[in-house]
Every structure is written in C-alpha cells, then in structure tokens.
Design goal:
Strand content: over 45%
Number of helices: 4
Helix content: 25-40%
C-alpha cells in the first residue's frame, strides 16, 4: 500500500508539472507572455541597471507570478516566458518543494539570467535546477550593480505580496516548452 501511495504522488507531481504548460490555450500563453513583459518593465523600473542585464545576457526566463506557500512542507509554482538573444523562444514552468520551518504564503516575480549558451541549453533541455545553495537577489534600486554570475546564472526576485516565514531547504526545477 505504501508503494502505491509513492507511485500516486509521483504521477501527480508529473501531471502538475506538465499540465500548466502543455495544456494551455493560446490566450493563456499570451497572458503569460504579456505578464512577463510587464514584469521585465517592472524589474527595470525598480533598478535601471537591470536593462543592461536584459540586453547583454545570452538568455533569460521571467516568471511574472510565482505563488509560494507552506506549513512545514512548502511548494511554489509559476509559469514564465523564455528569451534567447532577446527573442521569445518558449514558455517554462517553475516548481519548487521545500521542507523545514515555514509558514505562510507569498507571491513574487523571478528572473533568471543565463550568461552563456551552455547554461541556456541546459535550461532548454529541462536539465536545469537550483539547489538550496543558489541565492536570489531582491530587485531593489542599484541591487544589480555589484551582482556577478555564479556558475553562469544570476537570479533576481521581486516581492509582490503576502507574508512567509521560512528557514527551509529545497530546490527549484524547471520545464521548458519551445514555441
């Protein structure tokens, strides 16, 4: 019975990960792209120096609406738009699981910059994930001035709402879907 429960959880996790991207209507995809463009403008408005990051990065992915919640065990999910050389190439799904002291819910935006083709290709092959050691920089005025790529990746987040107390470990996984 326990083995059946584990298989059921794995099947549900798989369905949750692929359904939001592959089952979307054109209007839903258009909304993700429009929200991503608005989020990009907001990141640049918050820190004008980020404009250069968007222009010079090999590629980037913007998740305009990531929802996160937890109580002991937490989860986060969001959809975003993927750009290579500033050209829209696809959509992506972010999923995250964490465990530890955490309580609450929040919404945020996330942008991941890729310095090189190598990291961008790993993302496009859905072989890209963050472990607990990757840290994101809060997008505030001047925050991008001293940030450097770490292992070919740079991450910024922007709080949208909610409140979450957290001291947990976990990781983010990504799925890419070419347009």
């Amino acid at each position: 019975m326990k083995k059946l429960n584990v298989i059921w959880v794995m099947v549900m996790a798989f369905v949750i990960n692929i359904t939001p991207i592959f089952g979307q209507s054109e209007s839903k995809k258009d909304k993700i792209i429009a929200d991503s463009n608005a989020a990009k403008a907001e990141f640049v408005e918050k820190d004008a120096l980020m404009k250069g990051l968007f222009e010079k990065a090999h590629g980037f992915v913007i998740f305009p609406n990531v929802g996160k919640g937890g109580f002991g065990i937490g989860a986060a999910a969001g959809n975003g738009a993927v750009y290579e050389h500033n050209k829209l190439i696809g959509l992506a799904k972010l999923s995250q699981l964490s465990i530890g002291f955490q309580a609450g819910a929040q919404a945020y935006r996330e942008v991941i910059f890729f310095e090189s083709k190598r990291e961008m290709e790993r993302f496009k092959e859905s072989r890209f994930e963050f472990s607990a050691q990757v840290s994101a920089v809060a997008a505030t005025e001047g925050a991008s001035a001293n940030v450097k790529y770490t292992n070919g990746v740079m991450v910024f987040t922007m709080h949208k709402g909610g409140l979450m107390y957290e001291a947990s470990i976990g990781g983010q996984k990504f799925k890419f879907n070419k347009l």
